Amino acid sequence: MKSFLFKTAIVVNKIFLIIFSLLEPILKLIYDTARNKKPLPPIKDVVLTKSAQQLSLLIRSRKVTCKQVVEAFIKRIEEVNDEINAVVYKRYKEALIEADNVDQILSNDTNPEVYNEINCPFLGVPITIKEAIAVKGCPQTSGLLSRKNVTAEIDADTVALLKKAGAIIVATTNISEVCMWYESSNLHYGRTKNAYHRGRIVGGSSGGEGCLQSVAGSAFGLGSDVGGSIRMPAFFNGVFGHKTTSGVVSNSGQYPMAKGTTENLLSTGPLCRYASDLIPILKVIVLPEHLNKLNLDQKVCIHEIKLFYMDEGDCFFTSKVHPDIRECMEKAVDHFRQLGCEVERVNWWQFKYSLLIWACKMSNNDEKVSFNMLMGNMKHEVNPFLELLLWLLLCPRHTLPAICLGIMEKYSYSRQLLEWAEITNIDLRNDIELMLGNNGVFLYPTLIRYRDFLKGKSSGGFSDCCFSV
Hints:
CATH superfamily of the largest domain: Amidase signature (AS) domain
CATH architecture of the largest domain: Alpha-Beta Complex
Low-confidence stretches: 452-459
CATH class of the largest domain: Alpha Beta
Number of helices: 18
Radius of gyration: 22 Å
Strand order of the largest sheet: 1-3-2-6-8-7
Order of helices and strands: HHHHEHEHEEEHEHEEHHEHEHHHHHEHH
Helix content: 40-55%
Number of strands: 11
């Protein structure tokens, strides 16, 4: 089995490399322009440079009004969004009304206990939400033209918890079509462009959120991740993102909604500019029955950490790890070694098949709704071959990545391959859990630089999928 997979992957990889090598000069001509490199307007309002916790303290102490804070973030979005297309729905009017209410509450000499720092840790803090996650009164299309008139009737569970914690939602952000690609582009909203270079992508599917965080468009945001959809946008845009352990945060209220085995891969989590905000956000969105299990308040003794690392994954469709990334990893490893940590280099052959294991896991699900049905808004199965023809005729109804995923779904994996992937997945997961124990940290290379990515290569992206399973 491994020999067959190896030979097949080599052939497919060579085909991809040829295609991307031919396309690279054209793509460079289109996207690598002076205009795309032009810097965005600088941040002028000091309010935008504060963490979510700092903003909450400033508002609560009345050193600044909530309305001033919300207006500052709205102004910032208006300054940059025409260039980056990260925000797809603006909830300004409602946000300003909610800000006035917060200021009114704080103007009272005595505030109800429900608004104290414990119950309302993000009182008045402006945030944004991935468009695929339901926000009452906002569109929830997931980038599908067939859902362009769909509006969320109730809040997703996580959104409701954030609102209860005092957060104010100012906007929703762009995604990939049906949240199943690593670029945030769709025919309904268009493509989100990287703030550092508009000719480059922001990652997906929570790319609009990652991009907006990079330009200080909100205090923090909410995304979701089934195969890298928080982690890749966080890296692509230079911000912090955290995919939570599956099951500890509710995924209810999203489209598409994962079912069965796939639900174990999907996680909802934060994206933000300050690592210090991650734990406070998690304390709000994690389900109460799981909060104590995470030990979020437990003090970490650095010298007791066991550090494990891999400097190569050798996954198919990837290049060798870039020297700059390898150098950074070596510095990090040396730093922890000097702090007294136990350090060990490890190697798992299973990482070579990361993408295949994840794809089999996504497919091997009796409760799974077909991707073509999701593309048809759960009303009918889309014919991906017809959609490909329409795309070639310049009359597209879906993006090319979505169409290709729909076509791939038509060719099911053999039972033998699915069983092999399941066994391999279980063995790898058990090995990692046993190795990490209660104090282990695993360091792994990240994605490759942009130019090699254009050639169809990556140094770590496909292994994001493996960490999901």
